[in-house]
Amino acid sequence: MTTGKHRSPYVRLFAIPGTKAFCLSGAVARLPISMMSLGIVLALNHLYNQWTIAGSMSAVYILAMALVTPFYARLFDRFGQRKVGVPALVVQLVSMLAFAVAALFRVPIAILFVLAVCMGLTQFSFGALVRTRWAYALRGQENDELLNAAYALESGIDEIVFILGPILSAFLATSVHPVSQLFVPTLACGFGGLVFFSLRNTQPPVVEPVLVAAAPASDADVRAALNSGSQGTAGQVPTDSLGVKQLHTHRSKSKSVLLYQGILPLLIVFVVFNMSFNAFDVSVTALMKEIGREQFLGLQLALVAFGSCLGAFAFGSRQPKHSSWSTMVRFLVLLTLGDILLRLTMHNLLFLGVCEVLTGLCVSPLFATGNLIVKDIVPERSLTEGLSWLTTAGSVGTSFGSTIAGMVLDVSTPQAGLMIPWICTICAVPLALFGWLLARGKKTQVTEE
């Protein structure tokens, strides 16, 4: 008979009450991350036939979203997911509908840019909220080993979303209406988000610092501590006596996640290698349009996500043998090789598709590893903020990728655009090595102490 510990980690994850509900609803609510950015590019290119405008507006939307994601995360950590999430979700839905309607009626570009910024400023990271719930659901020494599987699962779900999103966006843009793909993610976000925030049993509690009033000088324990300090042998205080510093406590101040050692190098790595993804999407979109195969665009983009989904479940089914930083370096090297293959095989769609699946195998493990690094660095009370900073870094990178790819495509060809992904990933490798060295140095210092 198979014991509990020998069952699949995914079976054990969903045996925990409430996990199925928040995992599924969070997945539905995340559909905009795979549709809105690409939907903006498709809609604007169809309406105005300009890659730079389309790529820039997508980048503006992503950048605005990246700027406010940590702010929302801090509110979630401080006041709770439901209390902040419900009103924030309503505002988000209104802004998404406003942008979609404005694009449908072809308002001037300047107004669309303003609406894109407003829409981005209302977005928050459902992925970070779900991962925080997993950390809460798996709290305790017995379930700690499952957290790697949970984060890999969420990375896999992200990729499933990225499989369905581009296919749906491309189909709606080419077969229904150039703007129709902006309405579907709005509906999905509203439905999934409302269900997610209604699940109170798995909502992490708010961790608040407790204010303890300082003991007055006339207090008996304070006088005893002072007297014991003056009467100890050779100035030594007995170990069972209360010290004055122990009797005076103050409110603990919330430390910014960015100040924890190792966070900034990790964020820089995520900015750089995430530039490759939207640069690839925009360049492949231009390639499909150039060769008259736009009907296959969604499938072509989904193949990378399919490979990443496979990589996520394979990565989460076993415990990593190496440190998280060394694992990240290895997968970045493999991703760079994969991006080079994508450029070399771009003229044959069959070979390109095979290489997209193989390259995608490296993507989810990178994100899952980044989440584990954050979990190891930041305290539990700031976990949502820490994970959201990772999302922000990735969003900043993808916005840069959209902008750069759009500018390159307006003056050159898709062949030049597909050079951008491997250049970005190869630049991320030495940055990850630097983060690995910092982490090893810190571990050595702690061991010596």
TrEMBL record:
Domain Major facilitator superfamily (MFS) profile: 262-449
Phosphoprotein among keywords: no
The species this protein was found in: Bifidobacterium aemilianum
Molecular function as annotated in GO: transmembrane transporter activity
Gene3D superfamilies: MFS general substrate transporter like domains
Lineage top rank: taxon: Bacteria
Protein name as annotated: MFS transporter
Protein's cellular compartments: Cell membrane
